[in-house]
């Protein structure tokens, strides 16, 4: 069985390399020749732990190739995975489906043998049924093209692990033959005991957005509570630990801080609201507007806290910003709270030095006017306040003794609640956090 992966961005590149690792011959397809050239040389255009090695290994053995040609893909693949983007549409909350539509239509028209198209992109519920019709209508005479929906749950930073050993797999399949093909594709995971939930198209599409909406809600819940603990002088981490011990709640995704960002959570909750409104059930997910508001409020609150720490004005003050990526182990700055906060501080007059172990280059493309430096030491030297915004290991393990001789004023805002307040204040820092008692 031969596999193609349409779209070689974050999801597609990971899926293609993982499929090669599972023993398939894989062809990755992208309309961007520069991306195809880089991947064909074994170069990964973004940072993801473990993925570069996997890519090089399978490009070298020839099991993994890349092309811009749908013709070539149509002749090659028995299963075509669709992993192209569904960005937020300009001027709206809805997802832009034009890349998915083009990929499905083009591959169905190019297929010269019977095949399965497996959708992976995050799409508005109802898309798979429409795309199944589009695929059938575009297929050549005598070629059977059927569609399944197979959403992706991978997390940046753990993308390879999440693809090779997921905690569950979901398949929207309404045709027994196509389901059987997909069971062969995932034989390795099924043998290892990974649960496979087979359902209709609509439920499969919704599982993905429901999971992301739940995670976003969990984060905004704890962030809302952190507004309360901050007001009364409580400790949000202890509170999260305590409620998290209840197995029904669970401790994961209860880390309060500057809020969620990235290419998925913010966009997906907005797209779900837009889709619910189109379906006439807007009120069903109205609470997601509040989830979004709480999240956006974190950024303004962080800027206000820094301003307060600097005596009421940031103008001309040296601010060290630690982190630009939306989360650690990633160079992704899409909708990053860290970078947004850095840019806001700069826009109200602060002198901002940003250091991120991997995301400086991407951040500089987005906000070229900030000062990007290439070490923690360079960022904090002369700082009147240090602001930790992305919890890279390097920042979690830095010590007050290391920073104290370098900073102009020993004060730190822990935007991710990852430092030990006692330790930092004992070493002479005034410590502030989002949702914890301040120490002076
Ligand atoms: C998310 C989903 O987890 C994944 O299943 C889906 O396929 C894609 O979207 P990802 O965007 O890679 O994955 O990041 P995730 O680890 O979910 O973090 C999202 C954001 O939430 C980050 O900005 C992170 O910093 C933030 N976050 C996460 C918190 O603020 N607190 C937490 O407790 C957890």
Automatic annotation (TrEMBL):
<comment type="similarity">
    <text>Belongs to the UDP-glucose/GDP-mannose dehydrogenase family.</text>
</comment>
<dbReference type="InterPro" id="IPR008927">
    <property type="entry name" value="6-PGluconate_DH-like_C_sf"/>
</dbReference>
<feature type="binding site">
    <location>
        <begin position="253"/>
        <end position="257"/>
    </location>
    <ligand>
        <name>substrate</name>
    </ligand>
</feature>
<feature type="binding site">
    <location>
        <position position="35"/>
    </location>
    <ligand>
        <name>NAD(+)</name>
    </ligand>
</feature>
<protein>
    <recommendedName>
        <fullName>UDP-glucose 6-dehydrogenase</fullName>
        <ecNumber>1.1.1.22</ecNumber>
    </recommendedName>
</protein>
<dbReference type="GO" id="GO:0000271">
    <property type="term" value="P:polysaccharide biosynthetic process"/>
</dbReference>
<comment type="pathway">
    <text>Nucleotide-sugar biosynthesis; UDP-alpha-D-glucuronate biosynthesis; UDP-alpha-D-glucuronate from UDP-alpha-D-glucose: step 1/1.</text>
</comment>
<feature type="active site" description="Nucleophile">
    <location>
        <position position="264"/>
    </location>
</feature>
<feature type="binding site">
    <location>
        <begin position="153"/>
        <end position="156"/>
    </location>
    <ligand>
        <name>substrate</name>
    </ligand>
</feature>
<feature type="binding site">
    <location>
        <position position="86"/>
    </location>
    <ligand>
        <name>NAD(+)</name>
    </ligand>
</feature>
<feature type="domain" description="UDP-glucose/GDP-mannose dehydrogenase C-terminal">
    <location>
        <begin position="320"/>
        <end position="421"/>
    </location>
</feature>
<feature type="binding site">
    <location>
        <position position="30"/>
    </location>
    <ligand>
        <name>NAD(+)</name>
    </ligand>
</feature>
<dbReference type="GO" id="GO:0006065">
    <property type="term" value="P:UDP-glucuronate biosynthetic process"/>
</dbReference>
<dbReference type="InterPro" id="IPR014026">
    <property type="entry name" value="UDP-Glc/GDP-Man_DH_dimer"/>
</dbReference>
<feature type="binding site">
    <location>
        <position position="334"/>
    </location>
    <ligand>
        <name>NAD(+)</name>
    </ligand>
</feature>
<feature type="binding site">
    <location>
        <position position="327"/>
    </location>
    <ligand>
        <name>substrate</name>
    </ligand>
</feature>
<dbReference type="InterPro" id="IPR014027">
    <property type="entry name" value="UDP-Glc/GDP-Man_DH_C"/>
</dbReference>
<feature type="binding site">
    <location>
        <position position="208"/>
    </location>
    <ligand>
        <name>substrate</name>
    </ligand>
</feature>
<dbReference type="InterPro" id="IPR017476">
    <property type="entry name" value="UDP-Glc/GDP-Man"/>
</dbReference>
<dbReference type="Pfam" id="PF00984">
    <property type="entry name" value="UDPG_MGDP_dh"/>
</dbReference>
<dbReference type="InterPro" id="IPR036291">
    <property type="entry name" value="NAD(P)-bd_dom_sf"/>
</dbReference>
<feature type="binding site">
    <location>
        <position position="156"/>
    </location>
    <ligand>
        <name>NAD(+)</name>
    </ligand>
</feature>
<feature type="binding site">
    <location>
        <position position="122"/>
    </location>
    <ligand>
        <name>NAD(+)</name>
    </ligand>
</feature>
<feature type="binding site">
    <location>
        <position position="261"/>
    </location>
    <ligand>
        <name>substrate</name>
    </ligand>
</feature>
<feature type="binding site">
    <location>
        <position position="267"/>
    </location>
    <ligand>
        <name>NAD(+)</name>
    </ligand>
</feature>
<dbReference type="Pfam" id="PF03721">
    <property type="entry name" value="UDPG_MGDP_dh_N"/>
</dbReference>
<keyword id="KW-0560">Oxidoreductase</keyword>
<dbReference type="GO" id="GO:0051287">
    <property type="term" value="F:NAD binding"/>
</dbReference>
<dbReference type="Pfam" id="PF03720">
    <property type="entry name" value="UDPG_MGDP_dh_C"/>
</dbReference>
<dbReference type="GO" id="GO:0003979">
    <property type="term" value="F:UDP-glucose 6-dehydrogenase activity"/>
</dbReference>
<dbReference type="InterPro" id="IPR028357">
    <property type="entry name" value="UDPglc_DH_bac"/>
</dbReference>
<dbReference type="InterPro" id="IPR001732">
    <property type="entry name" value="UDP-Glc/GDP-Man_DH_N"/>
</dbReference>
<keyword id="KW-0520">NAD</keyword>
<dbReference type="InterPro" id="IPR036220">
    <property type="entry name" value="UDP-Glc/GDP-Man_DH_C_sf"/>
</dbReference>
């Amino acid at each position: 069985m031969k596999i193609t992966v349409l779209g070689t961005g974050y999801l597609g590149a990971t899926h293609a390399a993982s499929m090669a690792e599972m023993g398939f011959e894989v062809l990755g397809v992208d309309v961007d020749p520069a991306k195809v050239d880089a991947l064909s040389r074994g170069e990964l255009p973004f940072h993801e732990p473990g993925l570069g090695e996997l890519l090089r290994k399978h490009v070298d053995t020839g099991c993994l190739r890349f092309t811009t040609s749908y013709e070539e893909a149509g002749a090659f693949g028995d299963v075509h995975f669709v992993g192209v983007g569904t960005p937020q549409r300009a001027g709206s909350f809805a997802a832009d489906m034009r890349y998915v539509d083009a990929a499905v239509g083009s591959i169905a028209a190019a297929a010269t043998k019977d095949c399965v198209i497996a959708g992976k992109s995050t799409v508005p519920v109802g898309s798979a049924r429409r795309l199944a019709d589009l695929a059938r209508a575009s297929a050549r005479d005598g070629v059977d093209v059927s569609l399944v929906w197979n959403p992706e749950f991978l997390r940046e930073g753990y993308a390879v692990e999440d693809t090779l050993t997921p905690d569950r797999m979901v398949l929207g399949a309404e045709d027994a033959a196509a389901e059987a093909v997909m069971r062969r594709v995932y034989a390795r995971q099924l043998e290892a005991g990974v649960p496979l939930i087979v359902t209709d198209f609509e439920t499969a599409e919704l599982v993905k957005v429901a999971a992301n909406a739940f995670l976003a809600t969990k984060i905004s819940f704890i962030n809302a509570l952190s507004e309360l603990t901050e007001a009364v002088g409580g400790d949000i981490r202890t509170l999260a630990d305590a409620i998290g011990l209840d197995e029904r709640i669970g401790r994961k995704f209860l880390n309060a801080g500057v809020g969620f960002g990235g290419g998925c959570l913010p966009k997906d909750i907005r797209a779900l609201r837009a889709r619910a409104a189109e379906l006439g059930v807007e009120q069903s997910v109205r609470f997601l507007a509040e989830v979004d508001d709480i999240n956006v409020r974190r950024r303004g609150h962080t800027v206000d806290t820094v301003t307060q720490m600097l005596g009421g004005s940031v103008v001309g003050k040296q601010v060290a910003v630690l982190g630009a990526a939306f989360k650690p182990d990633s160079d992704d700055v899409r909708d990053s709270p860290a970078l947004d906060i850095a840019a806001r501080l700069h826009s109200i007059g602060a002198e901002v030095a940003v250091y991120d172990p991997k995301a400086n280059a991407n951040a500089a493309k987005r906000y070229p006017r900030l000062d990007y430096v290439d070490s923690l030491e360079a960022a904090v030297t002369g700082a009147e306040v240090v602001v930790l915004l992305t919890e890279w290991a390097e920042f979690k393990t830095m010590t007050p003794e290391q920073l104290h001789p370098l900073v102009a004023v020993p004060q730190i805002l822990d935007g991710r609640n990852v430092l030990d307040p006692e330790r930092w204040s004992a070493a002479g820092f005034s410590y502030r956090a989002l949702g914890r008692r301040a120490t002076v």
